[in-house]
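pasting for ref
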Amino acid sequence: MVVRFARLSHADDPRHEVPPARLFAGHRRRRTPYLFREEDLQALLAQAARLGPPDSLRPHTYRTLLGLLAVTGLRISEALALRFKDITPDGLVIRETKFRKSRLVPVHATTTAALQAYVTKRGALVLDDDHLFVSGRQRPLSYFTVVDTFHQLLAAVSIPTDPDRPRPRLMDLRHTFASRALETCPDGREHIGRHMLALTTYMGHARVKSTYWYLSSTPQLLGDIAQACEAFFQEEKP
């Protein structure tokens, strides 16, 4: 993140120095996330709604699942583990997932309505299993099946539109949620601190450091950081 920030500052003012690329070698290098545009998400969900077989639960399952990932930032493993009892009036109960942590994820009223509509359709299947998302074989959806279908949907709607960009991953729906949440953060150091801590808790991160990583995910966020730093140093000048 330091090198990326330095490069952005250097582009704005050549007097800024850029550290050597391997100065911070040894740290785990994160893959640059693919951030979906709103129109990308709408196209993806519309294509999911067209999945076959006709009159099956499958199109409703994938439209609901992908929509849920996009508007909550859940991990795919957390979404696939959801059961009927995990949908509560207060939100979604995420039980002992990564880092053995459980949490309550509040959701918007529109998300609740979409989930309830899906639950009605899913409830029509009389199964011994109470997983929310099931396959055509009436078993819990597997991660690999979802990934394969996700890639088929991406190809059908020509995402990414730029052939030089890497193919998005399911995890990029989570990355997109976190990045957009930070872009809408209120101004002010106190507001930003509370917003960051709330997002860390909401996403189930073990450390706030994991959430700070998203600050380098978009040019807008990097630009906001640069402006904030410049304003801070201007205030500090005698």
